[in-house]
Write a structure and sequence with these properties.
There is one protein chain. By secondary structure, the protein is an alpha/beta fold. The strands form two sheets. A seven-stranded mixed sheet has the order 1-3-2-4-5-8-9, sandwiched between helices. It has a two-stranded antiparallel ribbon with strand order 6-7. The longest helix is centred in the last third of the chain and has 13 residues.
Length: 255
């Protein structure tokens, strides 16, 4: 199953594959790609999102297979945000020798069941807006953003929050695929010992997504291979803390 794919940089440069979270799309990484000079950055729309196929199944294995089928099995550094972090982790566990470096942006490696249930129930609600401006304004509460520049959201969401045939503006994703993803995020992940690759973990200081229950285990398994950076703002670190996050990612990939 092939996914819609965005690419930046020269095709023969070192590869960086970026995986977005639920309700998002590949262009979420456009600004990060612009800051990563000297790399070939690839960012697919995940199953059920953007311009990729919407049909199920939406389990982890199908997501991973679709990503690998789309970007190929050549070595690549992986960058994953939220659910994309879980998918990047799954790919690294499957073939760690093909992942020279792993970047996890406020990742949903393993959600406690009650957190996943609350998120899935919330995803059942209708997200429709009378205008693009209303959708942008409401996104601050919906994503619990902490000072993200409005122009950043407008630039990225211009092709993702669009007028539907019946009038309201809606995001280009399948709510059913999102709800299924929350169930997958609550499943047991591969052990950290299977993903002993240099890893950058970027956490939002005020994120609503818990990671404290995993951090000690992650540090114990990776030791000096794990670098942890806490940035201001919430879960969507490339919106709330773009400068800090992009600088940390660029430095980590170059080190």
């Amino acid at each position: 199953m092939r996914l819609a794919l965005r690419e930046w940089g020269e095709p023969d440069a070192p590869r960086v594959v970026c995986l977005h979270g639920v309700t998002s799309h590949g262009p979420h990484f456009a600004n990060l790609a612009a800051s990563l000079t000297g790399y070939h950055v690839l960012a697919p729309d995940l199953l059920g999102h953007g311009s990729s196929p919407y049909e199920p199944p939406w389990d982890l294995e199908t997501h991973v297979d679709a990503i690998v089928d789309t970007v190929g099995a050549a070595p690549a550094c992986l960058v994953g945000h939220s659910f994309g972090g879980r998918l990047a982790f799954e790919i690294a566990a499957r073939a760690p020798k093909l992942v020279p470096r792993l970047v996890l942006l406020d990742p949903a490696i393993h959600l406690p069941p009650h957190v996943a249930l609350a998120a899935a129930e919330n995803a059942r609600g209708e997200r429709a807006y009378i205008s693009f401006d209303e959708g942008i304004a409401r996104r601050y509460d919906e994503s619990q953003l902490h000072g993200a520049p409005r122009e950043l959201l407008e630039d990225e969401l211009g092709e993702h929050l669009v007028a539907s045939e019946d009038g309201p503006y809606r995001y280009r994703y399948s709510p059913s695929a999102v709800i299924a993803a929350y169930g997958e995020m609550s499943s047991e992940p591969p052990p950290f010992e299977r993903v002993r690759v240099p890893t950058l973990l970027v956490l939002g200081k005020h994120s609503y997504l818990p990671y404290d229950h995993l951090l000690d285990e992650h540090r114990t398994a990776l030791g000096d291979l794990l670098e942890v950076v806490v940035v201001p703002g919430g879960h969507t670190v490339l919106w709330d803390s773009f400068e800090e996050t992009s600088a940390a990612v660029a430095a980590f990939l170059a080190s």
